[in-house]
Write a structure and sequence with these properties.
about 85% helix; about 0% strand; Serine Threonine Protein Phosphatase 5, Tetratricopeptide repeat; TPR-like_helical_dom_sf; TPR_24; TPR_rpt; mainly alpha
Length: about 260
Amino acid sequence: KRGEELLKTLPQEVPTDYKQREAYLAHIKGYYYLMRGVPNLALKHLKHSLVLGEELGNKHEIADSLALLAYTLYFFKGELDRALKYAERSLALAKESSKKYYIASSLFIMGVIYGFQGELARSIRCYEQSIVLHKELNNKTMFIAYILSKLSYNYKMRGELDSALECIEQSMDLNRELGRMTRLTVDHHYLIQILIDKGDLGRAQTSLHDLEQINNQLKDKQTNSMYLFDKALLLKTSSRALNRGKAEEILEQLLEDKD
């Protein structure tokens, strides 16, 4: 009986500061498992963070959790429709919070999802709006370079090669400045394909040589695969049958290595 009386004296609601810490920890755990490629645990902790965030009413934190939930659903689960609903809600709340960083993040997620759905025009608009906001924040980060590379890919898919080239060159400049060699290899990979499509084989060959130098420096399997693939693409453009034959040999070897 004394125990029951003691319980009645305890607060019935969890203190706000404790709930805030719990929401923060849940968010960090969700992000950690997302980066580690463990989607089920990521979803579990992000949903917990979302529930607590909604109880606290912190709109930008709710928006952030929703954006990460959307990312997890489309990237690991392939649930594009559910992911888009989370992303749309994330964007709405981010705009209500008036915090540009979270608006930019939500727009980026929506851009990726629209891209997967084949809605390239909508995807491009989201990417461009996201970049504008990052520039307004003077947020010169690797994130802008990544968005630019995604934007370049979309333009290439639409056949807008000049715009694709402009975006990938901007991405390369940023990645060089930030010293991000791994991302620079991806940029060279996109650049070579754009230049081949434009018929600028001389510049494509120069970019392939630059990629070869990075490949020799990094000694990374993925980078080497990109280099060999792009080398094969250039060899296939040759008028010499011998070079086209070498291209086929490289592509066959890459397929065997993949299996």
